[in-house]
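quick q for whoever's on today - can somebody do inverse folding on this one?? i tried earlier but teh output was garbage lol. tokens:
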């Protein structure tokens, strides 16, 4: 039996801005995403899909999404399915408009109030993408309508192992400022939602610009690093929000025959591989 694993790549917090503009005057998010895309195209075995877990652009502007589309075009041309989730820096309508004619790009039903959907991946594994964006707010939330839709998506294939993706972390992290901007509205209802669906094996998010490991109900919850800039690791209760030039990265979720769902950290940059002779 072929034991080759299936791979889902998770990029996050790409924060693409207007062409030529740098974040904080220093961070070239476009160059960082270009590098990440090149690395994704070299991954073996070939990924079955690429998830981007929010803050796709920096200010929700159509020109930013146009540049994002250009940067992601090599993945589209390679026929790698893309699953896009909105973050608090995103705007739903221009996001959907930028990818309306892009084959294999998933970002919810056109014009929907919430960009929530499911993808059936081989293996099998089901990817359920949820929309934690609250317009005009940095923190995330789920109202009753979004929770009901999420419950229906999960109930539709309750027999299939499932990975749930959203932008905002659904638990505290000790990063004081970011914890004020985590999933706030409907947090207990989200926890109850996950608890009702034992087929959920992982919850993944972005927003933190760091790798963190927490728990929601019975499930491990992982945040992905940013493809560009990371947030400084400072666990003082009065710590200011600051970025750091720590290595960028992404997650690779692997599963398959004889392999449970396992998540790996990959770091940006070119790293020599030295055979153990």
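ok took a stab at it. sequence:
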């Amino acid at each position: 039996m072929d034991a080759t694993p299936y791979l889902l790549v998770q990029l996050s917090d790409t924060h693409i801005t207007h062409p030529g503009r740098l974040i904080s005057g220093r961070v070239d998010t476009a160059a960082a995403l270009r590098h990440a895309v090149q690395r994704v195209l070299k991954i073996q075995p070939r990924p079955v899909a690429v998830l981007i877990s929010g803050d796709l652009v920096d200010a929700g502007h159509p020109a930013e999404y146009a540049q994002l589309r250009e940067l992601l075009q090599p993945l589209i041309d390679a026929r790698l399915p893309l699953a896009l989730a909105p973050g608090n820096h995103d705007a739903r309508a221009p996001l959907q408009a930028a990818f309306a004619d892009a084959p294999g790009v998933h970002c919810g039903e056109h014009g929907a109030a919430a960009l929530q959907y499911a993808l059936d991946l081989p293996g099998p594994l089901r990817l359920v993408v949820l929309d934690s964006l609250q317009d005009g707010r940095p923190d995330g939330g789920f109202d009753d309508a979004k929770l009901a839709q999420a419950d229906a998506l999960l109930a539709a294939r309750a027999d299939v192992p499932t990975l749930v993706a959203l932008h905002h972390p659904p638990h505290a992290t000790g990063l004081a400022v970011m914890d004020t901007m985590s999933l706030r509205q409907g947090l207990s209802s989200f926890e109850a939602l996950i608890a009702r669906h034992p087929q959920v094996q992982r919850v993944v998010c972005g927003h933190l610009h760091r790798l963190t490991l927490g728990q929601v109900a019975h499930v491990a919850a992982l945040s992905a690093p940013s493809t560009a800039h990371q947030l400084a690791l400072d666990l003082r209760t009065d710590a200011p929000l600051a970025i750091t030039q720590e290595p960028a990265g992404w997650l690779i979720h692997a599963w398959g025959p004889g392999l449970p769902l396992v998540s790996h950290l990959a770091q940006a940059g070119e790293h020599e591989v030295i055979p153990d002779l």
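fwiw The chain has six helices and 16 strands. also The CA atoms of residues 97 and 265 lie 32 Å apart. so keep that in mind when u check it
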